[in-house]
Amino acid sequence: MPLYKRPDSPFWWCSLGSDTRVSTGTADREAAEEFERTLLRRKWRIEKLDDRAAVAWRKAADRWLNETAKAKKRDRELLVWLNERIGDASVSDVADSDTLEELRKDGLTDGWSQSTIDRMMGTVSAVLHACTRWKYLEHVPVVPMYRPGLDEPRFLTPPELEKLCTHLPMHLCLAVRFAVHSLLRMRAQGRLTWDRINLQERRAWVPRVHQKAKRTFGLPLNDEAIRCLRALRIYGGPHTNHVFTWQGRPIDDFNGKAFADAVRTAKLAPFRWHDLRHTGASWAVMSGVTLPELMMLGDWKDYRSVLRYAHFAPEHARSASDKVAAFGARL
Description:
By secondary structure, the chain is mainly α.
């Protein structure tokens, strides 16, 4: 019998061949039989008609995860959520404007922000576009996005940073200071290893696989970054491979409870770990660093990304304006 019950599940399960064992998601026998018939039709279309558009979303998503170098932890989390809703639907059914809009509504129902929903829809779009490369689909419809307006970057003043550090354990305090003075993104910072640091030459290297821009990054180390690293070398001990560790293990996510509690206690909320990068960039521009220099310091790929910090240095624009006026006076 293709339909069967498992002792650990209230739902009917469906068995088709040796490679398909899925829950129907229902305890109703008639609904389960309809689910089974749908699967049988899809399996027949794939095997007999080579109808690749009938491939299940779940299989397409798994193939994308195995093949793409861009898949991240967040993509996997979102795909778990998506598979609960569309895992057994065909990719052609998912690539439908009404289905895509329903996914957005489901996100709103679950209390997601518009930016989080856009992140989820971006994952959907990536899988569907991969389906066009695999010839599962001929084209992908426009994936709807909210694209909420970007707020001004959140940053801390030096006194606020000191206040935050007073509420952090030592290993996080050093990590916070290093984040501000290195401008590294959180994942790249967490994966930094001692063999890629040269304290004498005051520089570090980040491999391309750890960088958002996907290029090897040479990181200059200022005095404060050097002080943090020397303290971390003592804190972590001589046998640790990763720079940032807790109880001997590398730190994967700095946005944990200890950081959130410190932000709340210091009355600095809302503030995320990524805002430390904004803090370092804001301080750099206010200290006289030009936007092209900032782009190199923070390894931004797009110049538009650093333009958000232009208002911190209006004197640069004023100097350019004065040059225009001086040129006009000579005419």
